[in-house]
Design a protein that fits this description.
- The protein has helices spanning 2-14, 27-33, 37-55, 61-76, 79-91, 97-105, 111-130, 136-156, 169-174, 177-194, 199-202, 204-221, 226-248.
- It is mainly α and 252 residues long.
- The protein has one domain (29-242).
- Helix 8 (136-156) runs antiparallel to helix 10.
- It starts with a helix and ends with a helix.
- Its main location: membrane.
- It is an enzyme of class 2 (transferase).
- Keywords: Cell membrane, Cobalamin biosynthesis, Magnesium, Membrane, Transferase, Transmembrane, Transmembrane helix.
């Protein structure tokens, strides 16, 4: 029952999938439920994969790829892209820690946010259109799984950067190494289940990039926030696609 409640919580919070289910939840539930986000990623990837299979019978390969990325934004409500933009606006303002956190909380969108989101979406689209069509379906399914691994790694390996309350506090404070281990087991199991060619090699890269990203961001503000977790998620997806392309095209 706890598993089901927490999985539904993550689907409701991190996606726009209409799920009408109410239950008593605690602050702890948010952090503990992060262990299940690889499953949320699989749900998103499954929907995107089905859409892709339908689209390629009507549209070209490139048009199908861009529609899939638009669908991803719709399914997630752009929650992680928003975190990416806020993080880049703050961290690359080169201000004090306190000022960086203020900028990250500001609802206004700055130049760094726009550039970061555009760059990530362009990279995602370009890499997807360069990947062999025979692997495309499995690559799409695993795309959001790799991203959400970044959120677990980020929350479990960092502390909350703000002094008061915030959206990411319950995630970061209550997500421990135990949740990371559970999440990693689910992540590896999903990769093996989907069976992407050389997937056992590819799945290592999102783990490494997630650790490096959270360490880099945390050093800037002495911890992490909900926005930072979103940024790690989005960047991890792009690095995953880069790893897929590099590994599948390696001729050594």
């Amino acid at each position: 029952m706890v598993f089901f409640r927490r999985l539904i919580l993550m689907l409701q919070f991190l996606t726009r999938i209409p799920i009408k289910y109410e239950s008593d939840i605690t602050t702890e539930d948010f952090g503990k439920a992060l262990a299940l986000v690889p499953i949320v990623g699989l749900v998103l990837g499954g929907i995107m994969g089905i859409t892709y299979m339908l689209l390629i019978h009507i549209f070209s390969y490139k048009i199908s790829a861009i529609i899939i990325l638009v669908e991803y934004i719709f399914l997630t409500g752009g929650i992680h892209l928003d975190g990416l933009g806020d993080t880049f606006d703050g961290l690359f303002s080169y201000r004090s820690k306190e000022r960086i956190l203020e900028i990250m909380r500001d609802s206004r969108v700055g130049t760094n946010a726009v550039l970061a989101v555009i760059a990530v979406m362009l990279l995602n689209y370009t890499i997807l259109t360069e990947i062999d069509k025979h692997y495309m379906l499995k690559v799409i399914i695993l795309f959001p799984v790799a991203g959400r691994l970044g959120s677990i790694v980020g929350a479990s390996l960092s502390t909350y950067a703000r002094k008061g309350e915030g959206m990411g506090k319950s995630f970061i404070d209550c997500c421990t190494i135990k949740e990371l281990i559970v999440g990693m087991i689910l992540y590896v199991a999903i990769f093996l289940l989907v069976g992407l060619s050389r997937g056992y090699i590819i799945m290592i890269f999102p783990i490494i990039t997630a650790v490096l990203l959270i360490k880099y961001f945390s050093r800037k503000i002495d911890g992490a926030t909900g926005d930072v977790l979103g940024a790690v998620c989005e960047l991890n997806q792009t690095f995953y696609l880069l790893a897929v392309y590099a590994v599948l095209n390696f001729r050594g």
